[in-house]
Amino acid sequence: MLSKQVVRILRPMTYLFTGPMEAGKTYHLMRTVQDLLETATPAPFESDFSVDGVPKHVQGGFTAAVFCKPIVDTRTDSSTIASRNGTMFHGVAALPSLDTVVLKENTLVAVDEAQFFDESLLRLFDRVQQTMGCTMVIAGLDRDYEKKPFGHVLELAHKIVMSPGMGQVNLLRAPCHIAECRSPASYTKRLVQGKGQIFIGSTESYVAACAEHH
After folding, report:
1. 188 near 207, Cβ under 8 Å?
2. Catalytic annotation on 113?
3. Which among 46, 113, 119, 212 is annotated as catalytic?
4. What does pTM read for this prediction?
5. DSSP letter at 25?
6. Maximum distance among all alpha carbons in the chain?
């Protein structure tokens, strides 16, 4: 039987975690990264990365690891990815575009809040597919507060499904913000006034909602 490292080297792998607010997208990204790097995965977990985004000890058969977030996401420090449960990664690159990400063989690249990136998200996926041993882990909203596609996340999901490479699309759900409701939330509801698709905010501005309570 082939080991996980050998299978990964033979065919690049992509993991996408998507869904509404509060569905655990960033948490699942972090747990997947920790599993791939063969590090301990308690919650909360804090990993110490160097400034260039490469961990001090890259494991799991990878020669490099790069962690990215969009520069427009100002909810946390620009060099940090944080999950709602307290899990935290440091040494993250805040970027305006993913075209600047340098890929080498056997690179692990993780992208949080992928909905804020332009078509460079799709181009990065194509580059990962063309680079031996690369693995990509992505987390991002699939739809905005008007239920419209957000960024290029749904396009990426389609590319992953249709690609000859290996990939997983994980569609996550959250509890509806109405406490008495037992329906899973598929959508994100905006609580504040604001025009435009991009309005940076957290739980004070957005909640997860089912179709009835959106």
Report:
1. yes
2. yes
3. 113
4. 0.82
5. H
6. 56
Tens digits of per-residue pLDDT, 118-147?
A: 999 999 999 999 999 999 999 999 988 888
C-alpha span between 118 and 48 (Å, rounded): 28
- Six token digits for residue 20: 């509404």
Contact 178, 207 (CB under 8 A): no
Q: In what order do the strands lie in the sheet with 80-82?
A: 46-47, 88-90, 80-82
Give strand pairing partners of 135.
Answer: 13, 108
Half-sphere exposure of 197 (CA within 13 A, CB side): 13
Residue 187 is classified by DSSP as: E
Give CA–CA dist 210/204, Å, rounded: 18
Alpha carbons 111 and 16: distance in angstroms, whole number = 10
Residue 198 has pLDDT above 60, yes or no: no
Quote the CA–CA distance of 135 and 122 in Å, as a whole number. Answer: 14
What range defines the domain where residue 69 resides?
A: 4-172
Number of domains in the chain: 1
In a domain, 77, yes or no: yes
